[in-house]
Structures are given as C-alpha cells and as structure tokens.
User: What shape does this take?
Amino acid sequence: MPHSFVPTGGVARVRHEPASMPRGAGCGVPPDPWASVSCMRSTRHKGGAEGHTVLMSGHRRRPRALPALAVTAMALLLTACGAPAAEDEDRTRITPDSAAPIAGTFDVGEGREMYLECAGSGSPRVLIIPGQRATVQEWQSVGEDQSAPPVFEQVAAQTRVCSYDRPGTPHDGTATSRSSPAPMPTNAEVMARDLRALLEAAGETGPTVLVAHSLGGLPGLLYTADHPDEVLGLILVDALTPELRRAETPGQWQVQKLLLSGDVAAMTAEYPDIEYADVDASMDQVEARYGDLPGIPYIVLTADEEWGPIVERMVADGAVPPIVPPDFGYLLDEAQRVSRPVTAALIPGGVWISETDSGHIMHHDQPQLVADTILGMVDELRAAG
Assistant: This one.
C-alpha cells in the first residue's frame, strides 16, 4: 500500500512543491541523519494558488495545499485513535462553536492585562503563538510578492482563530506593547501560563489546533503537554525546539543564543520592557515534559532558505557581533539538518514538510501553504469527529 508509510514513532517527510518552481523529479535517498525518515513527495497542479491538490473526498471548499501524503498520515493516526480507550473518554470533543470577534485586553492576574484577538467561528479553534517579539499583526499581513490573503484571514473564514501579543512585543513599529509589561527574561513556563490565563479570561478554551512559530515553539510544546485534553493537533512553523541545542557544540550554542536574543542591551535601552527569553531554561522545561505530549496529529513545517550566505553577509556588513564567525550560518544549516527530523519525531506519526520555498517568516513567504496546512488539519479533525 503506497500510503502505509507511517510506522510507530516514524516520520513522514513531505516536500511541498510550489507550482511555479518545480524542484525536480525525485527525493533521492539521503544519508544519515535522514536514514530513519521516509522521504515522500507532494505534487501540485499547475496554476498557482488556486491549483492545489484536492486532499479529501467530499471536500466542498477551496482545495487545500497541504500535501495529500500529510493528510493520509494524519488520517491514519486519527483512525488509530478513533476508538478511545477508557482513560481517554473525557477528552474534549469537537462541537459547533460560534462567537463574536475579539480585539482587546484581558486581566491575566498580577495586575497585568494581555491583548487577544479572535475572529471567525467554528471548532476546533486555531490558536496561533507568534515568534519572539512578534504580535497578532504579523499573522495579518503577507510578503510584498504574495497575492494570497494573510493566514489569519484565511483561517478565520473557515473556523475560529485566535492569536495574542505577549508582554514586551512591540506593536505596529512602535516601542510599546498592547500587553502589560512583565519581568524579563521570560521563559516557556511563564509564556504558557500567561497564555492559559488569557484564554480562560476571554472564554476561549476548548478544542484547539495549536500553531507555533519560531520561539513560540517552546511555549507551544509546553502548552500542548499541559493541556492534552484540549490540544487536538499541533503545527510547528519553523519553530525553535531543544533539538537545535543538542545538534550544536557548546561553543556553537553560545553563538546561537546571541543571535537568537539579539542585542538585548541596545534593545532595552530603547524599550526597557522588550521581550527576551531565557532560552536554556525554556528548553530544559520543554524537554522535561516530552513524555507528556499527547498522540495527536502533528506537522512540522521548516524553511528551506539556508542561513550560510545570509550570516556571511551579515558578518561582512558588521551587522552581528564580532564573536560570530563568517561560516556560522553554514554550521547552523548543518545543525538544522540534524535536528529537524528529530523534532518531527517528537510525536509518533509526525509529518515533516521540508521543501517549502520559504524563509523563516513562512506565513509571509508562503501564506497559502501555511493556511492550507492549518485548515487541512482542521478538516481532518472534523471528519474524525
């Protein structure tokens, strides 16, 4: 059977093929560390954003771009979980949901408020966790060369979608946040706890597909482990996970942390409350909870724009500290080649979509792919009941 490729604990590697930029005919057989990863190909009809492969029978809406093999992998996992064991009978079930739009702040305790924005109706709700110093606004826009609507808008047309501003995330190019200041550095536990308090205050808990980008991958994984009865599916969008730290040498990791945090001294001089995280503490917190991750549909989207030439130019331009060697981007690329298949295997049956023709801000570079991946998972969960 051509689709029986998801072994227990295995990973399906799917390559998204942009219709305008075909990548060639074959995946090839990569050396380690890919040896345990199934290399599968996704194809799309010609014709741009409206020419995506139809993914499921009886689909009455616009076709999704989520590779059909990824949907098959999710269907296999959902089928396997279709008859819940006795201990799973209290798991939150998908029910119809309709709610008014939200755009405002809510009391999260300790004298603080946080900004939340929700739109659309339906279940499961999609919850977007932005990356470092990013806000809802980043998911409501696209790259200049993109004709597809923003991801937030596309998802809101089909189901409920929410996202939020963490403390210290500058809004609309200003040195202010729509959320109250909080002590820095923050960490994954604090971010996950704040998120839960915000959703409870707004009445936006319940069946959820969680989407986490960049640094948001750390609180996203922790939130999934904390609330396995509510998080029904997880999508990581070029997310930071502890596997990157494991793939780098201690010396490389020190440089990596510097690039991840940026020039904190300069940033806090301009905006004292700006967000920055204790990445090591966050990764320790997440690793300690890996055993609590539920067996749910899980997709990892990764950028394929390489960092080598980018960091090389940044070093030449003096845009990074002198401690960063010119070849560090190439070392990072290699570390990502090692870490990504491990990240995709964190949950059995995980699907890895690799060749995305995208940089790190994938929801700007490939908004259609990201939106269709999200909505494809929503469709599959609805079909499974």
In short: Confidence is low (pLDDT under 50) at residues 1-9, 18-69, 71-93.
